[in-house]
Amino acid sequence: MANVIGRRQYDTRSNRIIPNVLPKIILIDRNIQDAGYLAFISKPSSRATLQEKVTWDTDEFRAIKDTVDGAVTSTTQTTIKFDNPSYFNVGELWANARTGEVVQISSVNTSTQIVEVIRAVTALNSSGGTAAAAINDADTFNRIATAVGENSPRQQTVTTSTSEVYNYCQIFRMDLSMSERQIKREFENDNEYSYQQMKMLKEFRMDMDRAHLFGERARFTNNAGDDTTLMQGIRPSISTNTFSVGGTLYKSELDEWLVEEGMRYGSRDKMLFASTDVILAFTQMVDTNLSFQVDLVGKEGVTFGVSVLRYIAPNGGRLMIIEDRNISEQYNGEAYLVDMTQMERRVFSNNGRSGEMHIIPNTQDPDDPGRVDTIMGDCTVTWGSEKTHGKLTGVAGGSYQSPNG
Predict the structure, then answer these.
(1) Domain 28-61+160-405 - what CATH class?
(2) 227: Cα separation from own chain's centroid
(3) Backbone phi, then psi, for 163, in 5-degree steps?
(4) Is the pTM of this model over 0.85?
């Protein structure tokens, strides 16, 4: 025993002082919006698939407009070359969007791209319609309807063929391995095993979120000789309705894109999974079109609430905006417009084996006194027609004022 003269210093028996430790470990980015896209994609009911390749067909109505390939200066010439002659059928009425002239289709030659027409049919016999006019290269013609005579023959059938689309299920896996002593240890701020398991489950969910967002479809043999399939996410799936902003997102340009492309097909109510730059752009051009609300995510009762922004498009469509932090981290300035009515989760489950995310306990070797738990999932998603979705890129800010003042 040693004598201490004067005031005792901190280092005296410092290793025996009861630690002042917060009762819980602070885990950064524990919020649901770490994987906001996955949270909402999980809302639609899932359906089992009996193999790893999921295939679906998409179809649409016949095209109702086409572009002229070469000017026709004469007002009496009856042959016109079009970019897509298969869009036309005998007996149909088409109108030049620029001049208003209405023509009727007489014959179609798809090999030469030549469509023969009767010019200015609404002006014939002094009917008072629009007269024939010169046709410019790249003029747009719009389909009106079929019109036949009193004793019309059978019309040629024109249909569209479906397009096959597919995606692969992807096997997701993580393993939590701890020795017997690691499992037995208790810390002041948490139980080590339960904390690590909770953390890994959340990380697993964020990994799945990134695959659902950014993954590219593929099938290959890995280094172990195993057949490996990768799912395709929503980002590479969208090709038609894209808006490359290139800096400031102006309200007038956004509204035009929403009306003409983003909200043109599919549901009038869509989700916009956005990065922070896109959300900031919306708040910078905020007006009466923007409001806050809470979306309740969960099944069979409220599980949790997520704050979302709601934007009203000029055509009355409702846009629900939510941040996904994976987009913010990896593709800031981007946002993905998703028609949730087109989305479906497909889970590879059969013969008592589930592809839903689940924990398989005690997968360690028989002679291992420790413990290994495996987290697995085997699933994919289908997105219906990609034309019902949209993509914003290159957003750095927002403004209510249009670029032209």
Answers:
(1) alpha beta
(2) 27
(3) -110, 130
(4) no
